[in-house]
Amino acid sequence: MRVKFSKSEAGFTLVELLIVVAIIGILASIAIPQLASYRVRSFNAMTHTDVRHLLMTQTAFFIDFQVYGVSAQAANLAAFAGSTGGPGARVTGPAVLGAIPGITATNLGGNVCAMPLRLSNNVSMVATTAVGNLSVFTGVAKHLNGDTYFGVDSNTTTTFFDRVLGSESIPLAAGIEPPATNGDDFTGVIGPSGNAWRVR
């Protein structure tokens, strides 16, 4: 037996369904790039927070030990080797068993000093002091999936940044931080993008 439907009981036509699918496709083509952009911006914000934390940690380190430290990674705080200055190692967050990121130095009394660094997931950082001069430091950080490098300096409370489009999935390389001196080490200095570092 055939059942007849009245006009009010009829379903959607194929044309109506195609129009709905087309509208959803157009909205998705707008939303997906925006979502990717928001993700990169959130990774950059995370890195900016961590580099500001480096500045605060270095300040506390200097107050406690009268020297700045270089970045290093060790199994625990007692395992840090100390440093008499120079480039730090690239450290990446978060802290995991057997790999705690921190800063370390050998103070004027010959004592090894260390302090842990709080780093977010996939944020890499390098803190460097001048060779033989632990009274100055520079630090640079980048999130693996971010596109902006952030830097801090012992001679200013300003945060600097350098955006490198297309650098997502490129890890931070040690050695891109400016050398630590007794002045502003970022203003007018060329960053990873080939342009000068800018004030954040």
Give the SSE order as H and E letters. HEEEEEEEEE
**What general outline do the C-alpha atoms trace?**
elongated
Task: Calculate Rg over CA atoms.
Answer: 25 Å
Whole-number mean pLDDT: 91
Distance N to C terminus: 76 Å
> Which regions contain 5 or more consecutive residues with pLDDT less than 50?
none
Strand order, main sheet: write it out.
2-5-6-7-8-9
Strand content: 25-35%
Query: What class, by secondary structure content?
Result: alpha+beta
Helix content: 25-40%
Can you count the beta strands?
9
Count up the helices: 1
Write down the domain tally: 1
Largest sheet, strands/sense/barrel: 6 strands, antiparallel
Task: Based on the model shown, name its key terms.
single chain; 200 residues; alpha+beta; three-stranded antiparallel beta sheet; 26% helix; 27% strand; transmembrane helix; membrane; N_methyl_site
